[in-house]
Amino acid sequence: MLIDARMQSGLSQRAVCKGLNKVPTYISKVEAGIRRLDSVETIELLIFLKVNPVQFFTDYLKNAKEMGYLIEK
Question: Which CATH number covers residue 19?
Answer without folding.
Answer: 1.10.260.40
